[in-house]
Structure formats: structure tokens, C-alpha cells
Amino acid sequence: MLRRTLLKTSALAAVASIAMLGTAFAENPVLKIGFVGVTSGPAAAWGTSNQRSMETRAAWINETGGYDIGGTMYDIEIVSFDDQKDPKRAIAGMEQMAQEGIHYVVGPNVDDGAAAVRPVAEQNGIMYFPYAFPKELYTAPASNAVLGMVANYQSGPAIYKYLMENNGVKKVAFIAGNESDPLSQRDSGSAAAKALGLEVVSDSVTYQMDTTDFTPVLLPVIQSAPDLLVLSGVSPANAPQLIRSARELGYTGLISTETAQDAAVLQEGAGELANGFISVGGASTPELASDMMREFVERYTAMFGEYNDESNTKVYALEYILATIAANPAAMTDVEAFKATMDTFEAPNPYMVGDAKLKYVGTTSFGQKRQVSVPLVVNVFNNGAFETMFVAQVD
Amino acid sequence: MEQILANGLYLGAQYALIALGLTLIFSLMNVLNFAHGQMYVFGGFVTYTVVAQWGLPFIVGLVSSAVILAVMGALIEKFLFRPVIRKSKRDESTMLLAAGIAFFLDAVILLLFGEKQRGVPKIVDGVFNWDMRLIMPYDRILIGVLAIALIVGFIALMQYTKAGRAMRALAQDRMAAQLMGVDVDRYSMIGFALGALLAGLVGGLLVTITGINLGMGGPTSIKAFMMIMIGGAGVISGAIAGGFILGMMESIGLTVLAVYGDITYLAIFASLMVFLAFRPQGLMGKPWG
Amino acid sequence: MNKNLVGIAAFLLAVFVLVPVAIAATGRWDLYYTLTSVALLAIGSAGVWLTFYIGRINIGQGAYALMGGYVSAVLMTKAGFSFWATLPLAGLFCAGISVLIGLPILRLRGVYFAMITLVLTEVTRLAALALPVTNGAKGITSIPLPGSLSVFGITLIPDFATMANPKLGFYLLAAALMVLSYVVLWRIVNSRPGHLCRSLQQNEELAASIGVNTAYLRVLTYAISSFFGGLAGAVFVAISQSIYPSSFAVADSVNFMLYCFVGGLGYVTGPMLGTFVLYFGWDLLSIAKQYQLLVYSSLMIAMMLVLPNGLLSLFDRKGGKK
To answer: What is the pLDDT of residue B139?
Structure first.
């Protein structure tokens, strides 16, 4: 736009975006990216870490002059919608995104919401990046959803296999919350374990999401004497309590989950009882995090007071959207161009050291490239921090 | 078997304490306090802030939870429930108010304390282990004993103090109590404050074991509703019985029905519905409460 | 009476002509879904309002919406029914179930009835998770859009999949159903059974003593109420083309009840207005960002303090009848 005033305004914008929470203010054209997810109520933690990591990244980009797409610098604006974990609201959120002319949306966070927004997204030409695992969202004929993380049916087998080979695990037990997402994850996890030749000693025990005492829930599971206890789709709120109850009941085997957890929450909720707990994380363990990841964590903390380790896996979706559009500027308003680019897109992964790449994967699981390639980093919790156990790739 | 009973007792004690506050408020004002669970969560976060963030002793946290919640309860009664009850044509209208307060507290909790799960470090270490037949961590035993002590204290308060007698009179017959010279407004406020205080205390006690997060409010309210339904709404002994019965049902149900997994709670809830269909006033309630 | 007719005509004109015209003119296409939701939720709250009318606090409408949704989804995907056939069947199924459940539980009153219906919502969700026919936790997805509806070879409603704008289609469908439901509601209230219902609300024993068949009236009313719930659920399934056990939860049941309170329990159109205000209010307040819930709940509490008998009580004349 007006090049002469660019210098003046970008200085102003820098000041403004430090002062205010990332309000787009500059003369740069604005690219809007949507977020539809849950930021209030019981599951607020999921969406909040998501929304905040997007806003942190957007403010960062805007502060440093914008994102270069086809030679033009764009400011990024995040348009958020709180769906209250209600699939009916999620549809309204997607409609609102369509109304704002947004073509790229991150979310929803849960299975039912992701399934419910599909008709709206397809009718309005919106690509969306849910954090939900049902395969039918990503396999043809569906084509507008891109899985924003590693699915449990991908990470689970990798973890079980590793533990079979390295820790001699033979018997595995599953426990899940009585809700769609955890139950589906338990079923696929149990199937994967059986396929690997593990003996599944218990996979029928469930708990209500509002359980305050897990001892009675875990008692029959522990009595089945597994070597590995899998907390399927466990929410960050329940994980420390489950670990604590299991340990207090005298369980000495391994405990793992395929969802991302927060180290501070584990430390507060279970303390040293959580040592050895295996979970899936992003790329922020000290050995893997690049300078950019460290700066991201710093900026997030400065903006919102406290970091959330779940955000490690949630920083990627926005990065993928922007990088893919940059690779093919036509994709900014045309999702078909975006889909075409997805097949060949490749860029360096700025959040990890080494030569990791950003690219779309998922051919094995979905028959088409409808998943972001996030490093599958398996962590072990130890005295308040995560340590890398092993890193794998999903194809 | 011993383990199942011990689990049930522990669960029952904490449930009964939650239900007590709810049933007290209900018996005095005929208000079903949807915000009870949120008050419990608020109490938990207060204790968390005092103990984990400021590093003060646990007992200070517990007392601050109790005091803050009691003040909050008194204010809510005086400025919200009292005028609405006076003006509305139908009793049920207070349900909307209670739900509004529940949403409001949810929002305040999210803004003040954040969306994360919080917990206070264990106050006592170690696990009681009787020959693998009965395993119970010491902190759980301590909290269970404290909960039972609080229940006993509460009953004593209701039985032997002037305020307790006044509140029982109010619960039996508001009009008659007023005619007998009981200051209805004052004791409604005290009762509400006491109910909120109990919610805050449970929150403070349980934050050491189960931790706290802002999502626990709504489900806690619903569980407390179920307990007072089992025992009979508005009856103190009923709430205690309801709490222990639900605790036992969960403990036994989860063990016996473990192989069928997904249906444990379905069975518990469905049997509760059947029970209420046959005995609408619960175990000890007044019919048509 | 004439004044009423003018009002109704104006309302119909607004719903079926002015809204589509206004949306086409302003390009706010997203409003269609919001208004569709309002219409459907208003149908559900009409049912809740009806149970209030016989003096019962119903916090179980979410259960029937979920059941209706599943009936429609299962019939469409497993038995190949047309959406249009499943719509009344969903309602009838819910009505049937509600008779079975209602016979014992309608003897309960006050908070006991309220609580048992609340538990019913949770039971329904858990049953949907456990039953094989519902496909459990994985839900039912990829449900087809409503096909065409023709009677004697004349196409009354075109296939939604071929429509240029299915949003408009769904809006008109939901609005038409809503208008129908409220006509039914109005007829019930102003009929002899309606007057009898009001007598139940005031004093059930007295009504029974003068020969009113209270048990029959209660079950009938509850069945109609649940029919509305099932209807609303079935249409929602058609829009989202998917259903999960969590599609209608306790929060929905509570909301249905709140919509009635906000509009006013003494007015037939109360639930419609309440739904509109609360649902739209939440959407409008999204400008408040992280303070959205805070502002929303504060307004709700403030409204309660000023108008504890519902928004429509604003139009009551002093000393006017209820």
C-alpha cells in the first residue's frame, strides 16, 4: 500500500502490538485465520492453549513486519469463536468464519464438533484443521479437513512397540473416560495392541469425566496386573489423579497416554508419582527445541502469564496454513489451490533443530495427504519436566 | 471387599459434605442452588492460591476458603436471591438466577484462576497398606476423617445452637417461624452463608487429593442433586445418607460391573430413576418437597 | 382479537419474507444458521414450556432431542428411510418413550421431577454410548441431506443436495416447523384440556377432586412436549449430517429450561423470545472476547433482578392477569 508511510506505521504498529494483545494495526493487508474451539467451560484448557498459541504467533509475525506471501507482507489476524464444546455452536462458528471470508480455520477440538462443521466447511470452501481423530473426516470423499496433530492410532502402536522391545511389556490395560473421544481412542488403541501381539488384560473400565476419586475405578484394572497402563485420550485434568491413584494402589508398571500433557499440571497433581509417565508432546524438550520454539514459549509466557506444554503440538497448524499459502499465493482465497499444493508442499520445520520438514502426510492412514507432519515426540515425565524418549515420523 | 468398603466410605464422606450445604440452602429457601458446584470449585482455588502460590500452611488456606465463600454466600442471598424471591410469581424463577450465578462464577473462575488443572502438594506422605487387602494413602484417611468431623460438627451446630434451632424452625415452616419471632431474613442469610462455606471447605479439602479445575463445578452440582434426591431434599440426615449411599454404589458398582465397563454409571443412574419413581420423596424426605 | 391477527401476520411476514430479503440484501448469510438454530431450539423449549404449564420443571428435553436425532439418523443410514419420513417418526418415538418414562415419574413434583429429568438426560447420553444401534462413541456421520419430498408426483420440497442454498432451505423448514409448533401450543393452551392443565399447575389435588383425569392429562402433555424435543433433534441431525452421544447434553437441557424462564412462563410466545434473546445474545457478545461469559451471565442475573417473571412481563399492565 502506501509505501512512504510504511516505515512510520510499522514503527507505530510495533509499539501498538506490544502494548495491546496483538491487534492488527498496520498498513499491511490483513490475512484472517479462524479458530473455532472450546475456550470456556470444563474443556476450556484444550481450546485455550490452541487459541493462545495462535495469537502469540500472530502477534509475533505482526510485530516483525508481517508474513511474506507472494512478495506482499500480510498481517495475521486471528478470529476466534468459542463453541462451548457444543457441536451445534461449532456450526454457527464455522458459518461466522465463512461470513468473514475466512478460508482457513483451526479447530474444532473434539470429534462431534469436527464432524458437525464438515457440511458448512465444504459448502463454503473452508479448510479446517481439527484436533479430532475419526478417520472419516480425512478420508475421501471428505477433503477439507486436515488433522492438526498425530492421531492416537498412529502414536499408540509406536509407543507400544517401543515399550515391547525396550521394556519387555507383555500385558497392557486400557482405561478411558466415558465420552466419545476417549472411548474411540481406547478401542483403536486396544486393537493396535492386539495386532502387535500384546495381551490386553483389561479394556472395559471407564470413568465419568467428573470423577473425583479414581481409586475404585482403577482397582479392577490394577488387579488385572498389566505391565503397561494406557490412559486413553486422558484429559490433562484427569491424568495426574489417575497416575496418583494407580501408584497409591501399588501399581509399579508403566503408564502412558497418547495425548499431550502439561508438565506443571502433572507436577502439582501427582508430584514424583508421575515420574516415568509417558506422553506425546511437541518439540519443546530441550534437546529438540529450536531457538524459534524457545522464543515462542517466551512470547507466549509474556503474553499470557504462563506457558502450557500442550501448546507445543498446537503451534503447528497456523504455521502450516501460512507456509502453504506462501508456497502458492493463489491458495489464499482458493482452497482447491491449497489442496493441490498440499501434495507437494515441503518447508523446513522452524521449531525443531536438525533438518525436520513441514509437509503433509497421512497417505497410510487416510489414503490422501490430510495430516500435518508433526514430529511424533514421545516424552517421559521426570521431576517436573519432560525428557525425550524417542522421536518417530508419521507417513 | 475391605478395599471396596473403604473406598465407598471415603467417597461417601466427601459426597455427604457437598450435599449438606446444598440441602441446607434448599430447606431454608426452597432454592435449588445450581451454583453449588461452582462455589466448591471456587473454594478449591482459594486454598490452592493460598497454599501453593503463597506458600502458607494448609489450614490457613482452608480457613480462607471458608471465610471467602461464607461472605460470598451471604452477599448472594442478600442482594440476589432475596429480592428475586420477593418479586417473582413462581418459585422456580430462582432456578434461572441460580444458573446465572453458576455461569457467572464459571467466568470469574476462568478469569481469576485460569483454565488449567491445579493441585496442592500432598499434605501427608505415605500409604496405609494392610496386607494388600486394604490400601489407603494417609492423606486420604486424613481428609476422610476431617470430612466426617465436619459433618459431626455441622450436626451439632444445627442441634444445639440458637442459630441452628432457628434454621431448623425455618426449614420446617417459614411462616410459623416468623410468627414465633425468628428473624427470617437474618437466618436465611446465615443459612446461605453456611451452605456456601461448606462448599468452600470441601473444595479446600479435596484440592489436596483430586486437585481442582474450572470444569468440575457443573458435574459436582449434578452429583450433589442426586445425593439429596436419594436421601430426600431438604433433610440434613437425608443428605448424609444420600452421600454415603452414592459413594457405596459407585465403589461397589465400579468393581462389580468393571467387566461391562461402559454401563456402570448407566446402571447407577437408571436405578436411581427407578428408585425415585417408587419413592418420590427419597429415603427421608417430606413428600412433594 | 384483530390486533392479535395483525401481529401474527406481521410475524409471519417477517419470518418468511423480510428475513430472507434482509439477508440477501446485507449478505449476512451466516445469520441463516443462527436463526435456524433459534427456531429449532424454540421448538424444544415450547415443549419444556408446556410441561411448566402443568407445573413441572422439565430439565430433560435434551434427552428427547438426542433420542429424536438418533431415531432419524439410524432410520436414514441403516434402514434407508427418507428424512421426511423420519421426522414425524422421531417425534412419535420420543412421545412413546416419554409415555413409558412419564407414567412413573410424572407423579413426582417440584425439584424431584426436575432432578429426575436432569438425570434422564445423562442416562440417555450414556445409553447412546453403550447401545450398539447408535454406533456408540463413534457416532453416526456422513448422514445424507434431506431428499426431495413429493406427494402424488408433485415435488413439494426439492432435494436439499441440489439446492443452490441449502441454508435457506433449512431455515424455511425450521421456521415452518416452529410456527406449526407454536400454533399447536396456542391451540392447546386455549382449549378445554389447556384450561385443565392450568388447574393442574395451581392445585393438582383440587383438580383431581373435581373429576379431572390428572394422570392422563399429565402424560398427554409430557408426550406432546417430548414430541417437540424429538422433532428439533431430528432437524439438527439433518443440518450437521452427524450425531454423537454428546450432541445434546445436560447443558442443552438446562438451556431449554432457561429459555422458558427468560421469555416468561406465563406467555405462549415466551420460550420463542427467550431462545432468541439468549442464543443471539451469546453470539453478539462474542465481541467481549474473554469476558463473553462474564457479561452474558451478568446480564442474565441483572434481568432476573429487574424482570423476575420473564421479558414478556414487561408488557403486563399493573394488576393485569397472569
So the answer is: 87
